[in-house]
Amino acid sequence: MGELLTLESAKQIAAYKAVDEYVKNNSIIGIGSGSTVIYAVHRLVERVKEENLNVICVPTSFQARQLILNNHLKLGDLETYPKLDCAIDGADEVDSDMNLIKGGGGCLLQEKIVASCANQLIIVADYTKNSQKLGEQYKKGIPIEVVPMAYVAILRRIEDNYGGLVKVRMALAKAGPVITDNGNFILDWHFPRDISNWDKINIEISMIPGVVETGLFIKMAKKVYFGMPDGSVKEQF
């Protein structure tokens, strides 16, 4: 057997395969955030050069926007292009029912908006994001973007109603909480292990006044590409 792939190589093979299979000429593509998407953009640049593709890219974050601009791809936005052919994004965890946790990088609101405008959401990830149940691999909790004035009330309500522990995500290079691209706070909910009714819980938490969006992406992904240690790509749909 050959050498096992590094995580970065696993990310790359998943991202390349997704771009090769889903990006077509004259399409409008949502570009997600995070480390695996960087490889998708690299492959997109290669294909635009080789095949002279006409592709418009709509970003999900400041990071994604810079990635598009730095690679000289065509930048679009949802005002001009409210309907996308597909969105390619990463995930922090994917369970056996294709439920996703996203938002480890703090871009969940714009990621979910862009994903909801796309005909299909395609997820690219390495094998460490592949779980049977949410919380198996990803231990940082479910991100929930909230309006700053309401964060304590929301935090208490989630803990009281569902258990677990909710923490305000703190910034690393600044004093105080992380501020999202939209000026909000992020709570990370370390939920009890026995939860499985994610659809219901996602709706209930979303309805709490002051909750802007959750990092639970339920019934949204059409296909997931996992780069595996042996160099293969596992597809889940």
Account of the protein in words:
By secondary structure, this protein is of the alpha/beta class. It folds into 2 domains: 7-132 and 218-236, Rossmann fold, CATH 3.40.50.1360; 142-213, ACT domain (Alpha-Beta Plaits), CATH 3.30.70. It contains 6 helices and 14 strands. The protein has helices at 7-22, 35-51, 62-70, 108-116, 151-162, 198-206; strands at 27-31, 55-59, 74-75, 86-89, 93-94, 100-101, 121-126, 142-146, 165-168, 185-190, 211-214, 216-217, 221-227, 233-236. The strands form 3 sheets. Strands 3-2-1-4-7-13-14 form a 7-stranded mixed sheet, with helices on both faces. Strands 9-10-8-11 form a 4-stranded antiparallel sheet. Strands 5-6-12 form a 3-stranded antiparallel sheet, with no helix packed on it. Helix 1 crosses helix 2 (35-51). It is globular. The two termini are 28 Å apart. The mean pLDDT is 96.
Q: Provide the succession of SSEs.
A: HEHEHEEEEHEEHEEHEEEE
Largest sheet: 7 strands, mixed
Strand order of the largest sheet: 3-2-1-4-7-13-14
Question: Which percent band covers the strand fraction?
Answer: 15-25%
CATH topology of the largest domain: Rossmann fold
Number of H/I helices: 6
Into how many domains do the coordinates divide?
2
Shape: globular
CATH class of the largest domain: Alpha Beta
Total strand count, please? 14
Calculate Rg over CA atoms: 18 Å
> If classified by CATH, what would the architecture of the largest domain be?
3-Layer(aba) Sandwich
Mean pLDDT: 96
Organism: Apis mellifera
Pathway: Carbohydrate degradation; pentose phosphate pathway; D-ribose 5-phosphate from D-ribulose 5-phosphate (non-oxidative stage): step 1/1
Enzyme class: isomerase
Protein name: Ribose-5-phosphate isomerase
